[in-house]
Amino acid sequence: MFTREATVDQINIVTSGNSTAQQVYAWLHGRILRGELEPVARLSETEIAHQAGVSRQPVREAFIRLTATGLAEVRPQRGTFIDRISIKAVLSARLIREAVESDLIRMVSAHPGDALLDQLDEQLAAQRDASEKQDVEAFIALDDRFHHSLAVAAGHGDVWDVLEGLKSQMNRLRYITARVFDHQKLIEQHGAIVQALREGDTDAAEQAMRLHLREVLNDLPEIAAAKPEFFTE
Predict the structure, then answer these.
(1) Hey, how many other C-beta atoms are within 10 angstroms of the C-beta on 65?
(2) Do 86-232 and 20-83 fall under one CATH topology?
(3) Residue 18: predicted pLDDT
(4) In the CATH hierarchy, which top-level class contains the domain 86-232?
(5) Predicted TM-score (pTM) of this structure
(6) What is the fold of 20-83?
(7) Torsion sign over Cα 175, 210, 163, 117
(8) What is the pLDDT along the chain (233 residues), one digit of tens a residue?
(9) Domain locations in the chain?
């Protein structure tokens, strides 16, 4: 086990409707999900406060929130560390997503409409472009936008917001796999979903969605074997 200190970049805290602690939390949360702060790295309260130009109190509050969401852990007399990726949490989030999104895609497939199909086609083109540029952050954002668009089209955009709150651990894995594996398979799976919608084939659309969301079951064992120090059961 290693306990290297996590390095941080400058963060600009701005006056907004969000508290300073919320802004620090959102910044750290994003960096953990993107893998910029790796599992078991130590978070320095003093360093982060210095980089953010804030007192230690909002940083301490942000650490508490990270711990509550399972992204950090406090080790007595040692400090706060980025928690490992929970395999159980990843698998649970995947199971919930499949159950929910397979229903959503069936709702959409009844009457997808040309506007939605055009929107999804544009998103697929943007995904291909992001993949060619090896822009992992853009690619994952576009992946999320694709699924969000389907939830909105089904009349349940709020459901996606609920799912987003459940899949932090899955998102951490997604950033790792997006840097390691070819994006083409995911793009093709999205394409199969769109094609099924275009053909009005409800069963094919649901099957394509389930296949897509089960891809993590193929990726997870390989990544966990390659980086065992990043994961916990």
Answers:
(1) 17
(2) no
(3) 60
(4) mainly alpha
(5) 0.84
(6) Arc Repressor Mutant, subunit A (1.10.10)
(7) positive
(8) 223 344 444 455 544 446 889 899 999 999 999 989 999 999 998 998 888 888 889 999 999 999 988 899 988 888 899 999 999 999 999 999 999 999 999 999 989 999 999 999 999 999 999 999 999 999 999 999 999 999 999 999 999 888 888 888 999 999 999 888 889 999 999 999 999 999 999 999 999 999 999 999 999 999 999 989 999 98
(9) 20-83, 86-232
Tokens found for residue 199: 């053909």
88/82 Cα distance (integer angstroms): 17
Those residues whose C-beta lies under 8 Å from the C-beta of residue 168, and which sit 6 or more positions away, are 29, 33, 69, 70, 71, 89
Tokens 């009457």 correspond to what residue?
111
Q: Please report the DSSP string for the chain in residue order.
A: ---PBPP--------SSS-HHHHHHHHHHHHHHTTSS-TTPEE-HHHHHHHHTS-HHHHHHHHHHHHHTTSEEEETTTEEEEPPEEHHHHHHHHHHHHHHHHHHHHHHHHS--HHHHHHHHHHHHHHHHHHHTT-HHHHHHHHHHHHHHHHHHTT-HHHHHHHHHH-HHHHHHHHHHHHHS-SHHHHHHHHHHHHHHHHT-HHHHHHHHHHHHTHHHHHHHHHHHH-GGGEE-
User: What is the amino acid identity at position 93?
Assistant: A
Q: What is residue 159's predicted lDDT score, i.e. its pLDDT?
A: 92
**What count of residues does the chain have?**
233
